[in-house]
């Protein structure tokens, strides 16, 4: 996931990450309260997100895995063998090994800001594909990073699954695509997952499931703020809301106050009216043309798009 800090480290040391403190105070001080989605992923948040990916209503993971399995050979035919696969975000054992096998990768470079996630995915990969060189890079891929010298001269395939691009505002998504283009070089290709615009009810169900896992994921942000920033937010007085913003073609997750309330954190006092919300995440959805426009604006020329029978989710291959 994008720009994940090291939550475990912050928790064991009981010292709040200064960037977390800054972002939360700044976000809650705005006239329309909003916090960056990256902070949803502490240890508990990451576990809850993993649980979300198994929910019946949350179709993206299931469909993307099916597309990767169904079209691995097609990707291989277009990309050719021996590429270094550079994955943005630590790879999941469910998605990455089948792709690496299908395209006969020459090396695998998982990039993640969180060393713990990186070690886990590297170990999983080493046992699944023992002969593949795995060269992890710890760092924030929102900025260009130096890639390992061992893949010099090897053509690259960037891999950015999960529709994580959708959690960025479109202008930031374009910046990230451009940065990937600069990192991966002129011979590069990019395989990216994007979630499609679809029936509003299906979208809302995916972000407001019956079992309440997404609600727990969203509300966990408040628990984290209380724990790490010494806050007294009455978590019980909030409820999870998932809204479709048609103008911006995105699902928005909000934390809504169910009564007028006050809370304190980091020496500051905050007030919320009944019905007022904290906007905690956006998940942008892209039609086929929108996706191609976004890729082109980011310096990538679309080559192929694969989608499921219902057109719910897309896997796109682009070239530099
Ligand atoms: C990580 N990201 C692509 C997920 C999404 O669908 O936007 C995060 C998520 N939030 C609620 N459910 C899933």
UniProtKB/TrEMBL annotation:
<dbReference type="InterPro" id="IPR035094">
    <property type="entry name" value="EgtD"/>
</dbReference>
<dbReference type="InterPro" id="IPR017804">
    <property type="entry name" value="MeTrfase_EgtD-like"/>
</dbReference>
<dbReference type="InterPro" id="IPR019257">
    <property type="entry name" value="MeTrfase_dom"/>
</dbReference>
<dbReference type="Pfam" id="PF10017">
    <property type="entry name" value="Methyltransf_33"/>
</dbReference>
<keyword id="KW-0489">Methyltransferase</keyword>
<protein>
    <recommendedName>
        <fullName>Histidine-specific methyltransferase SAM-dependent domain-containing protein</fullName>
    </recommendedName>
</protein>
<dbReference type="InterPro" id="IPR029063">
    <property type="entry name" value="SAM-dependent_MTases_sf"/>
</dbReference>
<dbReference type="InterPro" id="IPR051128">
    <property type="entry name" value="EgtD_Methyltrsf_superfamily"/>
</dbReference>
<feature type="domain" description="Histidine-specific methyltransferase SAM-dependent">
    <location>
        <begin position="20"/>
        <end position="319"/>
    </location>
</feature>
<keyword id="KW-0808">Transferase</keyword>
<dbReference type="GO" id="GO:0032259">
    <property type="term" value="P:methylation"/>
</dbReference>
<dbReference type="GO" id="GO:0008168">
    <property type="term" value="F:methyltransferase activity"/>
</dbReference>
């Amino acid at each position: 996931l994008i720009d994940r800090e090291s939550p475990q480290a912050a928790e064991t040391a009981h010292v709040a990450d200064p960037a977390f403190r800054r972002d939360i105070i700044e976000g809650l001080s705005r006239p329309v309260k909003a916090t960056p989605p990256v902070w949803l992923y502490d240890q508990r948040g990451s576990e809850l997100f993993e649980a979300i990916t198994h929910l019946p209503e949350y179709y993206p993971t299931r469909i993307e895995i099916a597309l990767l399995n169904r079209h691995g050979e097609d990707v291989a035919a277009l990309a050719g063998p021996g590429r270094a696969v550079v994955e943005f975000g630590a790879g999941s054992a469910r998605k990455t090994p089948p792709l690496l096998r299908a395209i006969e990768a020459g090396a695998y470079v998982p990039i993640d800001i969180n060393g713990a996630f990186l070690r886990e995915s590297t170990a999983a990969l080493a046992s699944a594909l023992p002969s593949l060189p795995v060269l992890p890079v710890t760092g924030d891929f929102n900025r260009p990073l130096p890639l390992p010298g061992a893949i010099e001269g090897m053509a690259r395939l960037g891999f950015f699954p999960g529709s994580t691009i959708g959690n960025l505002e479109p202008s930031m998504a374009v910046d990230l695509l451009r940065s990937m283009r600069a990192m991966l070089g002129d011979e590069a290709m990019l395989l990216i997952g994007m979630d499609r615009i679809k029936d509003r009810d299906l979208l809302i169900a995916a972000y407001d499931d019956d079992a309440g896992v997404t609600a727990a994921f969203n509300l966990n942000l408040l628990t984290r703020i209380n724990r790490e920033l010494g806050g007294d937010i009455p978590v019980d007085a909030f409820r999870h809301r998932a809204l479709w913003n048609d103008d911006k073609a995105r699902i928005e997750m909000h934390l809504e106050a169910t009564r007028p309330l006050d809370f304190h954190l980091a020496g500051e006092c905050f007030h919320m009216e009944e019905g007022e919300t904290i906007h905690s995440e956006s998940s942008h959805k892209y039609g086929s043309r929108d996706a191609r426009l976004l890729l082109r604006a980011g310096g990538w020329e679309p080559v192929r798009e694969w989608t499921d029978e219902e057109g719910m989710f897309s896997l796109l291959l682009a070239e530099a």
